[in-house]
Amino acid sequence: MKVLVVGGGGREHAIVWKIARSPKVDKIYCAPGNGGMEELAECVNIGAMEFEKLAAFAKEQEIDLTVIGMDDPLCGGIVDVFEREGLRVFGPRKNAAILEGSNAFSKDLMKKYGIPTAAYEVFTDPKKAEDYLENARFPIVLKADGLALGKGVLICRDLEEAKAGVKTLMLDKQFGSAGDEIVIEEFMTGREVSVLSFVDGKTIRIMTSAQDHKRAKDGDRGLNTGGMGTFSPSPFYTPEVDAYCREHIYQKTVDAMRAEGREFKGIIFFGLMLTADGPKVLEYNARFGDPETQVVLPRMKNDIVDLFEACIDGTLDRTELEFEDNAAVCVVLASDGYPEKYEKGLPISGLESFRGKADYFVFHAGTRKDGGRILTNGGRVLGVTAVGKDLKEARKKAYEAAEWVKFDNKYMRSDIGKAIDEA
Ligand code: GLY
Asked: For the residues 388-414, what does the mean pLDDT come to?
């Protein structure tokens, strides 16, 4: 089988690694891919938003299956283009990817179908948003409706900050048209958990749990990032929490999408908040999480290609997911200054230390190849993952392995997975 993966970050590297373990697969392409994937996949210089070019490439190369890793192409309708061309593709169509693409849509869906989430209001008029805030309780959350590279969520401590937030999103348009509409939402407190799932339109199969660390600095301080590290499983995702979510959230979401004529096939990523009133949905994503994927896939026993096929064919009810009884921790190595200003083009050394070590992985996020060298090419550069018998061991190993890699201005959080000590 020939498989094409669309995307070029750490998530796609982990997906490529997992696909490469399938005995069914002879050849993997990744578009655009990155400097670290080349041992597993041939990188193709086509951007993830160049749908027609990607479909033409898939036809020319007789690709059997295309897997879309990223949110932007999914929300832009890449799956519809591939299907129109008669190509086999894994991911939700545009009318289902709206589950991630529009916060207003997903909040209205949850309200209509009784799926637990924070109270909210939607605004298209900045003046009305400001009037509403005059009588609101703080802190409060402002969310740009559309995709904003994970950065369109503002937590505002008081009225002044919230009014400034309305200006940033709706008037200054810091995230472009993503801020044409905003959701103003009750601030929830609790522990966050990420739960990824495979969905075939009717059936949902839940993967193991994980937790991300979104802030740049230790102690959850600093700016929001794409994610600075993850661990899996989350000890806070207890069997009771799982049972509650299965009854009130997971299947209900799949059924709601179907009832709306937006059958969802692909990955639903449930961003959950474990509040004092029970688990609630913080957000939905329509794709694998990054860096959640770097800790979830190394623990998965199934052949991932079988799961992609089952979702496309609507036969997921015949499959159960299986995970190793172990744990994984991923520490992101970033370029100092991320997510604001940082240097690129710095040579990376030490990557060969991972060769032949089954419990250690280095997934490339922002790297490129330059002759025989690998250079930094983004804010999040690498994800170093280690697997251990439990979270403590995995964490110790991940931090050991993080020291094997060297580049100037290397930066990482030192407290990834520290929360497990409180469990
Ligand atoms: N780790 C959060 C995300 O993938 O959106």
From this structure: 98
Is position 353 within any domain? yes
In a domain, 345, yes or no: yes
Q: How far is the CA of 371 from the centre of ligand 1 (A)?
A: 32
Q: Does the pTM of the predicted model rise above 0.70?
A: yes
* Token output for 403: 């020291």
- Centre of ligand 1 from the C-alpha of residue 292, in Å: 7
Q: Which atom of ligand 1 is nearest to the CA of 288?
A: 4
Alpha helices in 61-166 (DSSP H): 71-76, 78-84, 94-101, 103-113, 126-134, 159-166
Residue 227 Cβ < 6 Å to ligand 1? yes
| Alpha helices (runs of H) in 224-274, residue ranges in sequence order | 239-245, 251-259
**CB 100 near ligand 1, within 6 Å:** no
Answer yes or no: do 223 and 295 share one domain: yes
CB 316 within 8 A of CB 199: yes
- Give residue 26's domain range: 2-93
What average pLDDT does range 353-371 have in this prediction?
96
150 Cα nearest atom in ligand 1? 5
Smallest CA separation from ligand 1 atom 4, residue: 289
What total of structural domains would you count in the chain? 4
Q: Is residue 359 part of a domain?
A: yes
Does 252 share its domain with 297? yes
**Cα separation of 366 and 33, whole Å?**
10
Residue 110 lies in a domain: no
Residues 415, 357: one domain? yes
Q: How confident is the model at residue 421 (pLDDT cuts 50, 70, 90)?
A: confident
Best of 194, 288, 295 to mutate for ligand 1, by most ligand atoms within 8 A of CB? Answer: 194
- Amino acid 17: pLDDT: 98
Contact between 287 and 267 (Cβ < 8 Å): yes
Return the bridge partners of 265, or none.
200
Residues in the chain: 423
Boundary residue ending a domain (180, 200, 225): 180
For the CA of 287, the closest atom of ligand 1 is: 4
Instruction: Tell me if 79 sits within 8 A of 70, measured CB to CB.
Output: no
| Residue 280 pLDDT level (bands cut at 50, 70, 90) | very high
